[in-house]
Amino acid sequence: MAAERLKAGDAFPKITLQSVDGPVDVSDRWRDGPLILAFERHFG
Fold first, then answer.
1. Which residues of 1-44 form beta strands (DSSP E)?
2. Quick check: pTM over 0.70?
3. Pairing between strand 22-25 and 16-19?
């Protein structure tokens, strides 16, 4: 299945991520203003 790219004006996809404080709805954070997501992988 191929993923579709977002276009200007599209709604932000419904994505929920787990954090140390519990689930975070990314679309709610996006609605509040600019958003930067950073993912870190721990080795060891």
1. 16-19, 22-25
2. no
3. antiparallel
Q: How far is CA 21 from the centre of its chain?
A: 16
Distance of alpha carbon 40 from alpha carbon 3, whole angstroms: 23
Query: Which tens digits make up the pLDDT trace of 3-15?
Result: 778 788 888 788 8
- Other Cβ atoms closer than 10 A to 27: 13
CB atoms within 10 A of CB 25: 13
Domain locations along the chain: 16-44
Q: How many residues does the chain have?
A: 44
Cα separation, 35 vs 30, in Å, equals: 6
